[in-house]
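Chapter review. Work through the record for AraC-like DNA-binding protein before attempting the end-of-chapter questions.
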Amino acid sequence: MGVPLRRRSGRSSYRENTPVAMVAGVVESAWTGRVGRGRPLRVFPDGCVDLVWDRRGLTAVTTVRGVLRHELPSVDWTVGLRLRCGVGGAVLGLPMTDLTASATPLRELWAAKARRAESRLAECATPAEARSVLEALVADRLQDVELDRLSIEAARALRSPGARADRVAAALGVSERGLRRHVRHEVGVGPKELQRVLRFRRFLERVEAVARDHSSLADVAADLGYADQSHLGRECRRLSDTSPGALVRSWVGLAGRNVPD
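Structure tokens for AraC-like DNA-binding protein:
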């Protein structure tokens, strides 16, 4: 799931923790959300997969093809592990292009193993206990899979503002077609689309600076490799269904976990 614009809003909060060493190679962060009240929200694409326990079920949430409409449950807390970009297909055990839903029950992918994990998670009294169960689940899964190092390196290279798919492919020793096959399997979209998503994710990280008048949208657009501010605006609307200015205003005012509807 996308990283929130603000870590705290009203009674809601969001905190990231460093994952344990045994899963750090594939887990970008372990997080806890303090919900406060149930509400709908939009989750923006970030190219990652989150394994989410929301006290109702364990799901694999993908946000790479566009904004996700998600109903936040009315529970005390939720926890999740954000997998690193480029490992989703290997960890989940299927091509990411096969996931048609944005939130897939993990029991549909891992069957009995996921159901046992849900039983253990239901007994957890604290977010820390639940995170430990999730980390153990992923660590056990890693014993049975082989990661695609090419996709991991490609995702890392495509974060650069000046990256080009053909140059990334050449640097990794594969054809553009081969690069596209690897990235689609592990992420769900091709290299060029992934690059657009990763650039948008970097923009979201800069929204606070714009809201605090430490930077401008024009400066951010130039820094991130957009042709101009209008280009940033078009990409922002395509990937989030809203404008850059609206995101800045959301940070200043009502922003919670991304943008509440």
